[in-house]
Amino acid sequence: TIDGFLSGVTTLETAPLRIQVLNGNGVAGAASAMSERLAESGFEVAGVGNADDKDYATTTILVPDGSMAGDQIVGQIGFGVVQIGTVDNGYDAVVIVGADAS
Questions:
Q1: Do residues 85 and 51 touch, judged by C-beta distance below 8 A?
Q2: Distance, CA of 51 to CA of 94 (rounded, Å)
Q3: What distance lies between CA 19 and its chain's CA centroid?
Q4: Residue 13: CB partners within 8 Å, gap ≥ 6?
Q5: Sign of CA dihedral 78, 83, 84, 89
Q6: What tens digit of pLDDT does each residue of 36-53 get?
Q7: What is d(CA 14, CA 95) in angstroms, rounded to the nearest whole number?
């Protein structure tokens, strides 16, 4: 509500963000650990797998142009960079776990 917004209290009345989590650092279990962390924070983890590359130094959140999902995810996990790109399968964002997450 606008009153809630003005008072600093916000409520999410939308469905949780559907995200895919990919391991981009080559550390076994990194995507699973991030998935659990994001699920506990209220995100819908709709897919987990491995990224095409295993040399991501920085956790990268891929979002479609105009999306605020990346900022929400970075705000929740406390690190990472947001990149605009193509997100498949109806996901709101793809989180590629980098070496900074380990």
A1: no
A2: 10
A3: 6
A4: none
A5: negative
A6: 999 999 999 999 999 999
A7: 20
